[in-house]
Amino acid sequence: MSTQRLRLDAQHRELLLKQVYRLTLVLLLIGLVVALLYFQAGIIGSIVAGLLVVGVGDLARQRGQHRLARSLLLNFLLIFITALALMGEGSNDGALFLVFPVTVFAGLMLSRKHYWRYSLSLFAAAVFVGYAESRGYVVPVSGALPAVQLWTDLFIMLVAFAANTMLIDFALNGVGSFLLKVRDELEQETLNWHKAAMTDALTGLLNRRGFMEHAEWQLHRARLDSAQIAVLMFDLDHFKKINDSHGHAVGDEVLQEMGRRLRNHLRANDASGRMGGEEFCALLNGVSARDAELIASRFCQSLAQTPMVTTAGHLAMTVSIGVYTGRAGDLNLQAMIQRADHALYVAKSGGRNQVVNAENASSPDFRRSGSL
Question: Is there a smaller number of Cβ atoms within 10 Å at the N or the C end of the chain?
Answer without folding.
Answer: N
